[in-house]
Design brief:
alpha+beta; Jelly Rolls; 229 residues; 2 domains; 25% strand; 8 helices
């Protein structure tokens, strides 16, 4: 995997905190290191010691769980405003998943030592972290319920809806154009279907005029029609 590299146009010079109220409230600027990471950068590996926490300023990360035989699956996505690696750092256990950037991303890396020190001595900071983690647990529980009880078509629609919320969308009249950071194989992993079944679902949605894929993007003619399908 590709490791993170310092940006030729340092993100700090752009003052991310002026545009990121959450990062500003957490006051990372004095103790984290902001870096640019190309797509495909592995932040940490499943089973490795938890040495760092990452705060996502821009971009998207997939969490990948694998078994010893080599089979892997995507168990979650994280984006702007999310923290990566907190559970393993707090519990002192190995990382339960690997974390890999899906798109070029800008993140702040904080060492486990500094993070834990701040967490134990700053009640306001601890409360902010608690809120972030609670939102992620809430969303993950909803996703587990959908995986168990909802159809694959419903799960796919949910992923498209969430990507629309967190991505930079382009509007052209009633059409919505959303960048698709996942390959079709990865999308199939995320909603727990085979690539063949995903192709059938996408064909069905396209046949009904609800969306189509174009140049790495999802084009949605009518978001309300897709939500009600």
């Amino acid at each position: 995997m590709v490791t993170g590299r310092s940006s030729s146009n340092p993100f700090r010079e752009q003052d991310p905190y002026s545009r990121d109220p959450l990062a500003a409230s957490l006051e990372f600027r004095d103790w984290g290191v902001v870096r640019s990471y190309p797509s495909g950068s592995e932040l940490f590996q499943q089973g490795a010691p938890a040495d760092d926490v990452y705060f996502i300023h821009q971009g998207m990360v997939k969490l990948v769980w694998g078994e010893p035989s080599g089979k892997q699956t995507i168990v979650g996505l994280r984006w702007h405003g999310c923290l990566i690696g907190v559970p393993a750092v707090v519990t002192g256990q190995p990382c339960p998943t690997s974390a890999v950037t899906l798109v070029p991303s800008i993140m702040e890396r904080i060492t486990a030592e500094k993070f834990l020190q701040r967490l134990q001595t700053d009640p306001d900071f601890a409360w902010e972290i608690h809120q972030i983690q609670s939102r992620e647990v809430h969303e993950q529980l909803n996703w587990l319920g959908e995986m168990a009880c909802c159809s694959a078509r419903s799960r796919l629609r949910r992923v498209f809806s969430r990507l629309t919320e967190v991505s930079k969308v382009q509007k052209n009249g009633t059409h919505t154009r959303v960048p698709l950071p996942l390959k079709q194989r990865e999308m199939a992993e995320l909603i727990a279907v085979t690539p063949e079944h995903l192709s059938r679902l996408l064909h069905e949605l396209s046949k009904n005029g609800l969306l189509h894929l174009q140049d790495g993007c999802i084009v949605i003619p009518d978001t309300q029609a897709l939500d009600s399908f």
